[in-house]
Amino acid sequence: MVSSSHEALHRIFQQEPGLFARVARNLGVAFPPPVSASELSTDLTETRPLERRVDTLLRMDTEDGSFVLAVESQSRPSPHKPASWAYYLSHVYAKYRVPPVLLVVCPDRKTAAWAAQPFDIGPRQWPSLTLRPLVLGPDDLPVIDSPDEAARDIPLTILSAALHRCEPEADAILNALAKALKGLSADDENTAGTFIELMEQGLGTTQAADLWRHLMAVDLSFFQSQTAQQLRAEGEARGEARGEARGQAKAVLVLLGHRGVEVSEEDRQRIIGCDDPDVLGLWLTRALTATSTAELFASAGETGLVD
């Protein structure tokens, strides 16, 4: 099961396809803004029983022509991903006959640096294919801490907050975003609700998520409709569920520590970042006997967790 923060990093491009052209400028690549954009099926499954799904896939039509944008949210380096990405691009090009572009969105610098390298596919003497993704990390977007600036581009502000969620600047971005949302008219309430949900997902289980829930508990009062009340209630329910998940994750870590099992920082973040109670329950059971985190994360427990 992929995390909600994983979803937000690519879903924001579904909500606002034109955001790609704006963030690409931060990467030194000039794409014209789309005249239109339409979602394509993310199912890249072959006829044989092998399922492959890209996170978000959009056909972008511009004045200079069309291209297919594949957006992948990547939370940690993975040696298997370059092969999957190459497959996605090749399959999309073969299926739609439109040039593909891969954007990888990374919420931390280590993963961004890994994803930004060119990946040669083929023998050393003659690589047949070189994968060159565009990579968007924390250093590639500005810190938007002005309410006026946030109001001018709310989707960009959401993405900025999601990528800086573990940094001190996150609080200022969220305060600016809350004020910008408050300035929306009553007619924009449904759009505001979508933005609020995306922002909550994008913050994951960080401390910034607690600040965001507090801001929304206060500042959502300017929306008085039934929709806003439902959003507040759903937010509270999600908060309670997250609290339970955090408790399970802490129990797993305490048990492993008590038994002397070494836990790397990467594994610790993986456990804390999991919000699936079934997976956490399985890990808690395994922690009673596991002698390493490799046993804890054995394949039966990892089926839905690869991102």
**Secondary-structure content class:** alpha/beta
Overall residue-averaged pLDDT value: 82
Largest pleated sheet: 5 strands, mixed
Helix content: 40-55%
The whole-angstrom Rg is: 20 Å
* Count of runs of 4 or more consecutive helical residues: 14
Q: Which range does the strand content fall in?
A: 5-15%
Order of adjacent strands in the largest pleated sheet: 1-2-3-4-7
Residue runs with pLDDT of under 50 for 5 or more positions: 223-227, 300-307
List keywords for this structure.
7 strands, 307 residues, single chain, five-stranded mixed beta sheet, 52% helix, two-stranded antiparallel ribbon
A few lines on this structure:
This protein is α/β, with parallel strands linked by helices and 307 residues long.
